[in-house]
Amino acid sequence: MGKFVENRPVIALDFPAFSDVKNFLEKFGQDEKLYVKVGMELFYAAGPDVVKYIKSLGHDVFLDLKLHDIPNTVKSAMKVIANLGVDLTNVHAAGGVEMMQEALDGLAGTTKLIAVTQLTSTSEAQMQAFQNIQTSLTESVVHYAQKTAEAGLAGVVCSAQEVELIKKATSEDFICLTPGIRPAGAAVGDQKRVMTPSRARQIGSDFIVVGRPITQAENPVSAYHLIKNDWLQK
Ligand SMILES: O=C(O)c1cc(=O)[nH]c(=O)n1[C@@H]1O[C@H](COP(=O)(O)O)[C@@H](O)[C@H]1O
């Protein structure tokens, strides 16, 4: 049996208002069930209602709030998130093993939990100079992935460039969700560690997250399908 891979690119709904989400989702056919990401911008603007709306349409939701606080606060917040019925959510691995374990406890098995390692907008030079971590960026990501696995979480957020080493250091089943995905020739923007959908698939990513290349496209539905086809092609 092959390992689980999510065949739909997760669309980052990075919009400032509920109405933008409605407009965006209405472009797709009613039978097209999507996997979308609700991040800080949209959640702070539209709150739990937007999550409930998206779920009521039958889409899957990754609630990306990247919690990073003391263990007790994160656990309490996760208890609230557990009631939203989302499919996936995340914390920052830098919060520590105890924080990650408390986050899991708060969710009580309702929602899959993953942890951000090093953001895909971080380069090795930035990490070394700013975070004062004197290893390679890959070593830092693999270290966070091992600690995340030790805490019992389902996987990590990383760039596709680190997936092979993470799987070796943890297990084949440990989820690697990879943002920083760009079709060949697309604008990279603020992302630093990027890869195309097909290359990410070859390398072993389990989920890809794509925002602007879809949401800012002239035709978001065809951009989505082009990216999906590239992702499905090994
Ligand atoms: O946790 C995330 O989803 C995330 C982690 C990370 O390391 N890098 C990253 O880009 N993301 C998110 O993935 C999305 C990428 O969007 P685009 O760069 O527009 O494709 C954004 O919503 C980011 O918040």
Automatic annotation (TrEMBL):
Pathway(s) the chain acts in: Pyrimidine metabolism; UMP biosynthesis via de novo pathway; UMP from orotate: step 2/2
Pfam families cross-referenced by the UniProt entry: OMPdecase
Annotated Orotidine 5'-phosphate decarboxylase domain residues: 8-227
Protein name (Swiss-Prot/TrEMBL): Orotidine 5'-phosphate decarboxylase
Reaction(s) catalysed (UniProt annotation): orotidine 5'-phosphate + H(+) = UMP + CO2
Binding of substrate, residues: 14, 37, 64-73, 120, 182, 191, 211-212
EC category: lyase
Subunit comment: Homodimer.
Lineage of the organism: Bacteria, Bacillati, Bacillota, Bacilli, Lactobacillales
